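Dear colleague,

Following up on yesterday's call, I've attached the two folding results inline so they're easy to grep. Please treat them as preliminary; we haven't cross-checked anything against experimental data yet. The first protein's sequence and structure tokens come first.
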Amino acid sequence: MLRNLLKVKFLRFLLVGLLNAAFGYGCFAIFIYFGLHYSAALFLATILGVAFNFKSTGSLVFGSKDNRLIGRFVIGYAFVYCVNLGGIASLAYFGVVPYVSGIALILPMAILSFFINNRFVFNYA
């Protein structure tokens, strides 16, 4: 039963995540286009993404409307930002352009984000 609930929740997370990823990657790509370094572009896109994602992820995926969880959500996304930045930097070392790195890391960062939100932010095991 718990396993099935987790599968459904993860599927909802992925569907809502498509919208959130399109928003976040769109911001990232626009910032890169305007000449920002990938770290600054990712930082700004993450800030905008946190504001956009908190409500959609909280209510549509985890059934939470508790605004007090925003602090945990920000901490979770700060961790995801650091991991994502490390991934983009690693791929850049091998010559992969930030546009491609950003796309390549969407799914791994979504999975990481789901586990952080599921365990740390919204406290559902």
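Below is the second protein, in the same order (sequence, then structure):
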Amino acid sequence: MVETVLVVGVVASLFVGFNIGGSSTGIAWGPAVGAKLLSKTAAAGLMTFFVFLGGWTVGRKVMDTLSGKIISIEISLSAGVAVLFFIGTGILVANVFGVPVPTSMTTVGAIAGLGLATETLNYDTIAWILSWWIVTPIIGFWIGAFIGRYVYPGLNRRIGIEKSPGPLLALDRSDGGLPTPGFGPNTTPREFVSTIVVFVIGCYMAFSAGASNVPNAVAPLVASDALPENQAILLATLAIGLGGFTIARRTMESVGGELSDIPLLAALVVMITAASITTTLSWMGIPISLVMASVMTIVGLGWGRATRPITVRKAVAGEAGDAEIAMGALTAEETDGVEAQPIGEAERPEALDARDLFNPGAIIKYVSMWIIGPTMSTVLAYGFFVLLPGIA
């Protein structure tokens, strides 16, 4: 009986990890794949390795929180399998609505539901986690807003990330000796350096995804002592990697399309910011959604670009005056050699004409899922364990 329940738990864990891989790989590598800097297969391979690295190192702190600090009793194997089921249900609902999965929040909600039903919930820990769920979107927004308003225009003029025709690197066989690697026929030093930067940032994003998401797939099994932590991390990595090689191929093509048609430079700014926030909070042991930081940084970056023509006081108060705060400011590119206007002075009108920075309806849907996902998993888990207390 125990072996059967364990097998079911492993299958549920694989399902959760598989869907995490499908969502997180698109977020981490979508911009690079979209810019044709690497193939989807190469992206999935890099994702798998760095997810393992993030889960094996920083992810252990999140694992400790999920498996031992949210509730004050040990989770039984049956209860752990049930919790994984509710996590998977939350993922399924998010996928039906086409929203990147707030897995960390859904996981905390399911475990909290068990704690409420058994009256073993650690309210101090939950309050600590919830406070960071509230603060994180604000941090992401204002970091993005600061960069968009004061830093991005200068970066946009000086840094160009473009892909020239042909391979990035090639083997030189002209001297008849051993082939030596060198730049491709059209590769410039600037393109080579910028490509390396994109790779490094993608790897950092994958590391961050592993730190925050590996524990989500296996923490209930670790908490019930059904799997040792090291084996659990390997299991989660396998599942996430499988999702990266399969269902993530589509998400790598479409990531960002609903929120914004942003240039690669802006996407990299968002990735660095979101990965840094997520890795830092994971190191603190806080289960956090990588999607949450990413989305709010996108919104903040665009808001900062759009409000450059007016002062901060007027922007915060919504007093645009004669300056139109267009929703598509982030998609507007500065022309090389053209200096950006000082803060508070109107820029060229065409710089603020684009209308597709982000879809407000999409933002509402994302934020709604951040609330609905953990709430639903909490309610379902609570109801289940109240009706079947013997499983807990």
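For the second protein, one point worth flagging: The CA atoms of residues 19 and 92 lie 9 Å apart.

Best wishes,
A.L.
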